[in-house]
Amino acid sequence: MPSPSRLWIPAAIADLLLILVFAAIGRDAHARGDIVSGAFATAWPFLTGAAIAWVVTRAWRAPLAAWPSGVCIWIGAVLVGMLLRAVTGQTVVLPFVLVALISLGVFLLGYRVLATLLLRASRKRQRRA
Question: Is 66 exposed, middle or buried (0-12, 13-18, 19+ CB in 10 A)?
């Protein structure tokens, strides 16, 4: 399995891209103008939350671990994201909070679980060879 020091940059980029995808899908679903710049406007609170969670949990030590790294980044992104949205006058309603929890959970935990399974399978294949 590759060392965490080699995986943290791709994991951080994946988090960034998946949060942007979440925001872009939401913008597109609600026909809210320019998807690209709008996605950044929608995503920045969640990106900030994810970045804070990365630092607080030192996720670079185990960037693909669903627990605790993935869960903390997911919850941090949603919690801080919603707080920042509220402070800046953006919409924070229960249905949006639930959609963000579910969507970001699937995105931020899902790829970690898949990557871990693929890395384990690859490691088993290498041992057999």
Answer: middle
Q: How far is the CA of 41 from the CAs of 21, 35, 82, 129, in angstroms?
A: 12, 10, 13, 49
Contact assessment for residue 52 and residue 36, using Cβ atoms and an 8 Å cutoff: no
Q: 51 near 12, Cβ under 8 Å?
A: no
The Cα-based distances of 50 to 33, 117, 121, 124, 125 in angstroms read: 25, 23, 28, 32, 34
Average pLDDT over residues 47-71: 97
Residue type, 76: G
pLDDT tens-digit map of 8-37: 999 999 999 999 999 999 988 876 677 788
Task: State pTM to two decimals.
Answer: 0.92
